[in-house]
Amino acid sequence: MNFLAHIYLSGQDPELKIGNFIADSVKGKKFLEYPKRISQGITLHRKIDSYTDSHEIVKQSISRLSPKYGRYSSVIVDILYDHFLAANWKDYSATPLEQYTLDFYDLLLDYYEILPQKIQNFLPYMIRDNWLLSYATISGIGSVLSGMNRRTKNRSKMNFAVIELEQYYTDFEKEFRSFFEELEVFTKNEMRTL
Fold first, then answer.
1. Which residues neighbour 2 within 8 Å (Cβ) at sequence distance 6 or greater?
2. Is pTM, for the whole model, over 0.85?
3. Which of 34, 71, 101, 164 has the most CB atoms around it within 10 Å of its CB?
4. Residue-range domain boundaries for the chain
5. Residues 71-81: tens digit of each pLDDT
C-alpha cells in the first residue's frame, strides 16, 4: 500500500495517521523515539505492509508485472492500488478526496517539526502538486511512476507501467477491491490491539 491507503486505514486518529504516513522513513527501533500514538501508527504501517506483501491477491497483481519490472513490481502495485482507492474514493469515504487531502496536508504542517527530514524535504512538492489527489487519474499515476523511475536512475522503467495499468485496468481494479476489503478488516482488528 502507498501513502493514501495508509492514511485512510488510520481512521480519524491524527497521530495514528502521522505515524502510518512517516513509517517508511523511520528505520528499525527509531519509532520508539516518537510519542506513543505516532509510534503505534508506525507499527500499524509495518503490520499493513507485512499483511499486504504476503497476500495471495496482491501476489497475483505483482505476477502480472514481474516479467517486465522484476523486483519493482511490488512497488508499482502499491501505487496502482492507491490509484484505485483514489479513483473510487466515494465508495470509501463521505468526505470528498480533495477536502480529505487538504485536511491531511494541514495535519502534516501541524506536526512538521517531528516529521523525518526526508518528508520535510518533499512535503512542499507533495502539497503544491497535491500528490494524493493526483492518484485518482491515470495521468497522475503516470507522473508518480515517472518520479519513482527517476529515483532509480531510470533502472526500474516504472514510468512504462501505465501501459499495464490501462491494459489490465479491470483485472487490477477487481483485485484491489477484493484485497482492500480484507485489508480493512485486518487493520480494524489490529487497531484494537494497539
1. 78, 79, 81, 82, 135
2. yes
3. 101
4. 3-193
5. 999 999 999 99
